[in-house]
Amino acid sequence: MFTRLRLTNFKVWRDTGDVALGPVTLLLGTNSSGKSSLIQSLLLLKQTVLAPDRSVHLSLSGDEATALFDFGSFETVLLQGAGAPRQFSIAFDFERAAATGVSRGSFECHYGQTAARSVAVHDLRLSTDDRQFRAVRREKGAYAIAVDGKTLPGVRGPHYAPERSIAFSAHAVSRLGHDGPVVEDLSLAIRRELEQIRYLGPLRRRPQRDYAWQKAAPGDIGSDGARTADVLMASALLKGNDQGQVVNGVSKWLQRMKVADRLEVRQLGRASRYELVVHRDGLMTNVSDVGIGVALVLPVLAVAYAAPQGSTIILEEPEIHLHPLAQSVLAELFVEVSRERGVQFIVETHSEHLFRRMQTLIARGEVAPDDARMYFVEHDGGNARMRALAVDEFGRVGNWPDGFFGDALGETREQARLMFERRKRGGE
């Protein structure tokens, strides 16, 4: 689980400060305020660690198999108007339930440009407990290595350049002696944390009428939910201890949202062809014929149960096309599944209903404020600014920005005033 994130000079962020992340974290704010940039920083690192070329420093566009976003160039990532040094940085802390190896650590990396205008690591810092390892870029692409603040003598050159932003080179590991395995384990833990990110964006594919089953479980649902049906078919049809887990989980939440009684994977007459069927009020409907809200929430529910335990699930606007009650129930989904399956949710949302239900869950004592972090992102003079919402044990927010969700009480007062005036005029 990621427990802290910090960005400097990254897109619209001059400095986020330390952003504490919980098992559930909600990011709220106006359009184009910088919420997506927070999410994209982690996705940029994920597509970098998955890059086939281990010598790459930062994979801005990814390749066909690993691309999550095309970030363009160094100039499009660097904050406009950033002063010297022209660098941006990404940093995070993490914790893992590891029986062996590294269970907690920190990553911080500063990126700049080379003379050839490619992106290069300028300062990489990996830490665990009371140990810190650094790779610092010097002149002409040479790197120096430091351990716990002390630069290793005679260790400098381009062959000590970091790999995929998170790992020290084989030459560096060799020169570290007995610390070599420590930094390797730390890099591996960071890699696993990033690899286990599951991302679902706001633009999701609508389901098809029927599917061919490949008799295998996909490793990821896809950023647009394209492999949702494959995940559901694998859950229903592959024998094993977890058979039906994803389908049953999806059915449970469709029912709690009051949009369906259950979901079924149903074989058609043709061999290896299946359809997804929604049951409601005794009727059976192909998922391509149900409302768009049901169709687009299926990937959200499926990834909650298909992601491996210990994963971080990043969602953008999971509430799209859902009615208010269903939006509210999403808050319960995040809290319950995070607790039951040990997964983390980082959610960008505009839903007042989701937010209000999270307040209620805190007030009920079903989730602690520190386990349901909420932030408001806004523009301040052209740069993004982060506001940690101060939520007490009763779910009350002490520093809510005016006007974001409108003024419900003000609207009610205005309606009452107008009603009173009209009645008064009618009685005259």
UniProtKB/TrEMBL annotation:
Parts of the chain that traverse the membrane: none
Domain DUF3696: residue ranges: 368-415
Pfam short name (any one): DUF3696
InterPro entries listed in its UniProt record: ATPase_AAA_core (IPR003959), Bact_Antivir_Def_Nuclease (IPR051396), DUF3696 (IPR022532), P-loop_NTPase (IPR027417), P-loop_UCP034888 (IPR014592)
Gene3D superfamilies: P-loop containing nucleotide triphosphate hydrolases
SUPFAM superfamilies: P-loop containing nucleoside triphosphate hydrolases (SSF52540)
Domain ATPase AAA-type core: 24-354
Protein name: DUF3696 domain-containing protein
Organism name: Yanghanlia caeni
Lineage, opening ranks: Bacteria, Pseudomonadati, Pseudomonadota, Betaproteobacteria, Burkholderiales
